[in-house]
Specification:
With about 55 residues, the chain is an alpha+beta fold. Helix content is about 25%, strand content about 35%.
Length: about 55
């Protein structure tokens, strides 16, 4: 699993699979895994930045 810092630099982002079998970016937190239901554009831009910085 690929992990990276999010914009705040405090949380970690991980790729999780939702109940429909789609891959989503999720934010693990103290209250459990919070799935990011952002638009596909946000996800693709985030992944592009992450892959570009690697």
């Amino acid at each position: 699993m690929r992990q990276m810092d999010d914009l705040s630099g405090q949380k970690r982002i991980c790729v999780i699979r939702d109940v429909y079998g789609h891959h989503r970016l999720g934010f693990p937190s103290g209250s459990g895994l919070l799935c990011c239901w952002a638009a596909g554009l946000w996800e693709s831009e985030k992944m592009k930045k992450a892959l570009g910085a690697a």
